[in-house]
Specification:
- 33% of the residues lie in helices and 21% in strands.
- By secondary structure, it is of the alpha/beta class.
- A hairpin with a 5-residue loop joins strand 12 (362-363) and strand 13.
- Helix 5 (163-175) crosses helix 6 (181-194).
Length: 384
């Protein structure tokens, strides 16, 4: 009788087969990506709506691991309108950060690859398809047109360089043409003052470890805003901060966004932050968008059982409960995703159709859409 192995066990033969197949796929993708002197016409595209700063269209970003293919982002589509804030919410590991890293082309290669779909970036006079943009052209887009505020400032700032040198470097690289060292320093100090650092001249000469968490996060925001980018990706910018500093950082982001008329992609677990900051909300679960709409749609008319569960699990001021609601079960294994709705095994609102294929997107209103079988009666035919 064959020996029964634990779930997730891989034999050496199977691991070698997976590794060989991964190398074949990633080598082909890397060969395409590393080409030199790629003509601009290859990655020029048209925005579907010129009022959008970014359009994610059926994006697939996979990680080729030794245990199998992890479909981190599996067909994500949403838009970031110019001058608006789009909040992306969901549990850890649902693909929020990988979506933003795909936009920046910062997914860890060669294991992480954008395998399908488009990310269209509006540059004003033209638009680029980010997944096809070569490395050299991407250097000019990162920091200049799209910049990112990372989650943990201490791991993003270099501990051996002074704050001033690190801010200066961003300006010199992207916006340094015709500027002297004094001009660049003056701009760096101005940026530090703009993000609410009182002793900007003093902080300019300090090392990262000499600053508090809130001050370091302000420095990160100053670096992200150095070139007045069109799109700011804020990946949980306030997670490591206490509540009062959190409020200040959010106010600061809102003011600066209006000042330079940029769009913000705000990634967070905190629904309170989303309610305060976002114009539109995208709810992600297991690498897919399960619901999207305006902040009002999502907060006052949540449609997907997962969104309803997230809303129920947040504490409400003035409402006394013995125990906060918690969504039962756990996220499915990303290497072996089910062929039905990913949330079905945790859902407390299942209907007859839930055992079918993954539900398609259903439009509840012009701004509000959801992927759930509970709304199939609102759709003629109801085919997935």
């Amino acid at each position: 009788m064959a020996k029964k192995h634990a779930e997730g066990y891989l034999s050496a033969k199977e691991a070698r087969r997976i590794s060989k197949e991964n190398r074949r796929i990633t080598n082909a993708l890397e060969k395409k990506r590393k080409r030199k002197n790629v003509p601009e016409s290859e990655y020029l595209t048209q925005m579907h709506d010129p009022n959008n700063a970014v359009e994610f269209d059926n994006l697939h970003t996979y990680f080729y691991t030794d245990a199998g293919v992890v479909k981190s982002v599996d067909g994500v589509s949403f838009n970031v309108p110019i001058g608006k804030t789009v909040g992306i919410v969901g549990e850890s590991g649902c693909g929020k950060s990988v979506t933003s890293l795909s936009l920046m082309q910062l997914v860890q290669r060669p294991h992480g690859q954008i395998v399908d779909g488009e990310i269209r970036l509006n540059l004003g006079d033209k638009a680029y398809e980010i997944s096809k943009v070569p490395q050299e052209a991407m250097q000019h887009i990162r920091g200049n047109t799209v910049s990112m505020i990372f989650q943990e400032p201490m791991t993003s700032l270099n501990p051996v360089f002074r704050i001033g040198d690190q801010v200066d470097e961003v300006i010199a690289l992207h916006d340094g043409a015709g500027k002297s060292k004094e001009d660049i320093k003056a701009r760096s100090v101005e940026l530090l003052e703009m993000v609410g650092i009182a002793n900007a001249e003093g902080v300019y000469k300090m090392f990262p470890h000499e600053l508090s968490g809130g001050m370091r996060q302000r420095v990160m925001i100053a670096m992200a805003l150095a070139c007045s980018p069109r799109v700011i990706v804020a990946d949980e910018p306030t997670t490591a901060l206490d509540v009062t500093i959190q409020a200040q950082i959010l106010d600061l982001l809102r003011q600066l966004k209006d000042k330079i008329n940029s769009s913000i992609m705000l990634i967070t677990h905190d629904l309170g932050v989303i309610a305060e900051m976002a114009d539109y909300v995208v709810v992600m679960y297991a690498g897919r968008v399960v619901e999207k709409g305006t902040a009002e749609d999502i907060f006052f008319h949540p449609a997907h059982p997962y969104t309803i569960g997230l809303m129920a699990s947040k504490p409400v001021v003035g409402k006394q409960v013995d125990k906060l609601y918690s969504i039962p079960g756990k996220v499915p294994n990303p290497i072996n995703m089910p062929n039905y709705c990913y949330f079905k095994d945790r859902c407390e609102m299942c209907v007859e159709g839930c055992s079918g294929a993954y539900p398609c997107e259903i439009q509840l209103s012009p701004t509000h859409s959801v992927s759930c079988y509970r709304y199939y009666d609102q759709k003629e035919g109801g085919e997935a």
